[in-house]
Amino acid sequence: MTNKKCLVCAAPLSPFISYGRMPIANGFLPRDKFAEEYFFEMRVAYCPSCHMVQLIEQPEREMMFNENYAFFSGTSTTMTAHFQRFAQDVMRDYLGSDPFVVEIGSNDGIMLKNFAEKKIRHLGIEPSANVAKVASERGIKTVSRFFEKDLAREILAEHGQADAFLAANAMCHIPYAHSIAEGVKILLKPEGVMIFEDPYLGDVLEKTSYDQIYDEHVFLFSVQSISQLFARHGLEVIDVKAQGTHGGSMRYFIAHKGARPISASVGAQIKKEKKLGLDEPKTYDKFRRNCERSRDELKKLLLDLKKQGRRVAGYAATSKSTTITNYCGITTDLVEFISDTTPIKQGKFSPGVHIPVLPYEKFKEKYPDYALLFGWNHFEEITRKEQGFRDAGGKWILYVPKVHVLN
Length: 407
Ligand code: DWN
Ligand code: SAH
Ligand code: ZN
Fold this sequence. Notes:
Rossmann fold; binds ligand DWN; binds S-adenosyl-L-homocysteine; binds zinc ion
């Protein structure tokens, strides 16, 4: 899919960076599949009209989300706790009588299990069949399909309207945002609330965390762009709450227009966004320069370490690491292997640059001198667990917000 016009408002786009040729971020592959690997040009644009930041080209959805999807949400204990709190907040604040909760991108059930345990009527919509199967096996009601307007009608007919429509790190994956908004409009009870969170544009720009941009993440949201998107469907943003997850996210609360009071935090956040220049093209020029600098510094650091004969391994074969390794040109010359706890990734090679992905035990067996933390968003969880690595003299390399070695 290539779009020259804004996916939200159809205005002409202002492209501001190309990260070059990129593979499927979660397309970990065996050696015999190297020759047929798919690539696209990853260019990003800003919409001067509705302020939505978006990919210009995105692979077909089935190429990214299918029965071999490599990301299982339950791999992080911090995220498991985060979604337990998220679910508890929803139960406390938004459920009426005989409540019904829908979640899109429910993955292995990390959020919905909290509702299932309380016997609350729920439905997960998760197109990646392998992760959906894990959820179903845990007793979480899951449909393995892509959510869109037509499916909303089917759900309505079978289950009735929803009190809460949830999405975590899913909305920013879906280019047909209008179809989703229409589905939400159909499915929500008059007092119902859609609550979703995604990596926040303000954090990405401030921290130069450009690795939040990859094939799956077609949008980088702000309160301004989200308000414009939902306003087109008789829906409005009634609250926003910043989250520390995934390097800085924003949780948006959406309701039917006029149905609920609007919190002062919505206007306050929009004011902040204007101060940060999220609606000014020059901000994106600056971001591009920051990305280029970050890339050059990381490459130089890794080359210097190589010259000194140091061993460097990657820690966590994240989707984000695909952007870093391909944009910076990091191959096995510079990073020996990437350690990851996900069985489906192990024994395969990283997308594009083909660095071997090895089980975590390999990391532990013989610590490298340096570990490049591709899972920087899980810094607390990982460094706590890996005190032994530091005690043995190992050093972490970080590249967010700046390229540096942790001493
Ligand atoms: O938006 C998305 C987020 C929610 O999850 C998806 N598009 C895909 C995915 O992005 P990611 O792959 O960048 O997510 P994480 O959570 O930063 O990375 C998870 C990876 O890190 C997994 O492969 C497991 C690995 N990991 C590890 O090896 N050891 C993670 C932890 C916490 C660890 O201790
Ligand atoms: N909510 C989980 C998973 C995020 S990964 C978490 O925060 O950890 C994004 C998920 O969205 C994937 O599991 C993917 O299969 C799913 N997805 C992509 N397009 C979708 C669509 N149209 N409808 C529902 N889910 C979708
Ligand atoms: Zn637009």
